[in-house]
Amino acid sequence: MRIDIITVVPDLLKSPFEASILKRAIEKGHVEIHFHNLRDYVTDNYKQIDDYQFGGGAGMVMMVEPIDKCISHLKSEREYDEIIYMTPDGERLQQKLANKISMYENIIILCGHYKGVDQRVRDHFITKEISIGDYVLSGGELGAAVLCDAIIRLIPGVLGNETSALTDSFQDNLLAPPVYTRPAEYKGWEVPEILTSGNFPKIEEWREEQAYLRTRKLRPDLLDEDEKN
Ligand code: ADE
Questions:
Q1: How confident is the model at residue 131 (pLDDT cuts 50, 70, 90)?
Q2: Ligand 1 centroid from CA 51, angstroms
Q3: 137 in contact with ligand 1, CB cutoff 6 A
Q4: C-alpha pair distances (Å), 215 with each of 104, 133, 162, 210, 225
Q5: Residue 162 scores a pLDDT above 70
Q6: What is the predicted pLDDT for the residue at 136?
Q7: Which residue has a Cα nearest atom 2 of ligand 1?
Q8: Which domains does the chain have, with CATH numbers?
């Protein structure tokens, strides 16, 4: 998979890709990340990428021309499955959407800033708008990092079998069951006996039940009506 990220602050974005699972995914060739600094697509001497909005109003708006130049350049080189704009008024990022995007070959992610982008960018280039939650961030960069993390870990081969994303919370609409590691008893706090029993079919049954109970308690909205009782 190839991800092109368009931003005015590439420095804000780089560190999540320089450690742990994302770093390894890049090193192993499962994903290529390309950062594009919008200022490199500006022709005037001031390197202006934002301007006042027509009609008046507080806040600056990202201009259409540099974004057009950047996206058109990328589109001339390859086909993109989706051109995503990170914005608080987009579709809420959920596991199902991450699963879908993780199957794409090439995507562009445009990070918004200031009061957003000229509407013509959204009308003529963007194919999907994504929000990571109902709050307003200073820019789309942290949202883009969240989106990339959520999709890259799903690419086959990125996680080992033993840490497969299939057992993540939210896959199957269930939260993950509780997990424990050594020591089996700490300050009198004991690990549930079943987990040290070696009875793997029973352990599996226990985990399924715990996942269900935890979901019913913490996120009943994930369950179907008939599962809630
Ligand atoms: N940009 C600003 N706020 C955002 C949000 N909540 N999600 C995605 N991008 C954003």
A1: very high
A2: 20
A3: yes
A4: 30, 20, 23, 8, 13
A5: no
A6: 95
A7: 137
A8: 2-152 (3.40.1280.10), 167-228 (1.10.1270.20)
